[in-house]
Amino acid sequence: MQEIISQLVNETEKAISVTNELRVLNDLKVEVLGKSGKLTAYLRGLKDVSAEERPKIGQYVNDARVKLEGAFDKAETILKQADLNRKLAEEKIDITLPYSGKSRGALHPLTQVRERIIGYFVSLGFGVVDTPEIETDYYNFSALNIPPDHPARDAQDTLFVADNIVLRSHTSTGQIRVMEKQKPPIKVISHGRVYRADEPDATHSPMFHQLEGLVIDKGVTMCDLKGILDGFASFIFGAGTTTRLRPSYFPFTEPSVEVDASCAGCKGAGCRICKGTGWIEILGAGIVNRRVLEGCGINPDIYSGFAFGMGLDRITTILYGINDLRVMFDNDMRFLKQFV
Ligand code: DAH
């Protein structure tokens, strides 16, 4: 009996030493030490052993159990550690791998252009004012000498919020807001969203952006306007760009002009951007109408000034060769990512 047990112990120890998997080790343990295991069976068999032999053999079986339990515990600890080491090695995160990184954001092209333009005028000493997007008829039309029968006053052209309340159709409203509060000399720009009752297409949007300039002082002339605009055109479209003034009409200026910049793409030779003319229309301007000054309490016999208004979206599309205005407002990442 003792021999059989010591043989079982030896065999089991041998099996333990060659087991390299926790699951297999556990099965082996159950097979030998479990409730119906081999060694347990000997304990049960003690009842068939003679009374005098019984304690001796009982002791022997117990010693064998203690010994084997120790062996199993030791093997289990070793296998668990090996398992952990394997996992650590296999599942290790390689922190030396290059990280593709999150893509960097960028300012919208319109914002980039706007900031550059504002920076230019600020460098010339212009102040920047912010005026309401929702305006009364007075600021959008009457104070700017826009007559009652002017087409801009039609609901077809301007978005009315209520009777006499409109979403401003231009930033020229800012001129009145400033002149009401401030006495000359005045040198400001105002900019922001403007609205018109237009169907969106490649060149129209019901919401777009304008930047307005206003200079009022003693002896301000068209030459001052031309000088400022030439400087601006060179700044934004590149050195050597000039402007030409074409006679036009705006109720709030007299005389009024349409301003073209020489085409930077072809240097005046004519190309796709300037539609073969060598010139690109960039803004409207003029000498502030006496009636507008008077309406704001500024004496037109003492003071004079000029004003100009440009579409920021238009300047942006010219600068980047964008041929459809709508992409500016689509928030399509494929478009926006090009401006990082
Ligand atoms: N308000 C005009 C428009 O929306 C642009 C403009 C023209 C502004 C002449 C001016 C100006 O200040 O003098 O089309």
Care to describe what's here?
The chain starts with a helix and ends with a helix. 40% of the residues lie in helices and 20% in strands. The longest helix is centred in the N-terminal third of the chain and has 37 residues, at 54-90. The model has no long low-confidence stretch (mean pLDDT 93). Helix 5 (109-123) packs across helix 10. Strand 7 (243-250) and strand 8 (253-262) form a beta hairpin. It is α+β, with helices and mostly antiparallel strands and 340 residues long. The protein has 2 domains: 2-91; 109-339, 2-Layer Sandwich (BirA Bifunctional Protein, domain 2), CATH 3.30.930.10. The chain is built from 11 helices and 10 strands. The strands form 2 sheets. Strands 1-5-6-10-9-8-7 form a 7-stranded mixed sheet, sandwiched between helices. It has a 3-stranded antiparallel sheet with strand order 2-4-3. It binds 3,4-dihydroxyphenylalanine. 3,4-dihydroxyphenylalanine is lined by residues 170, 172, 212, 250, 253, 284-286, 307-309.
Head-to-tail CA distance between termini: 86 Å
Major beta sheet, strand line-up: 1-5-6-10-9-8-7
The CATH topology of the largest domain corresponds to BirA Bifunctional Protein, domain 2
Question: What is the count of DSSP helices, taking H or I runs of 4+ residues?
Answer: 11
List the uncertain runs: none
Class based on secondary structure composition and strand pairing: alpha+beta
Q: Secondary-structure element sequence?
A: HHHHHEEHEEHEEHEEEHEHH
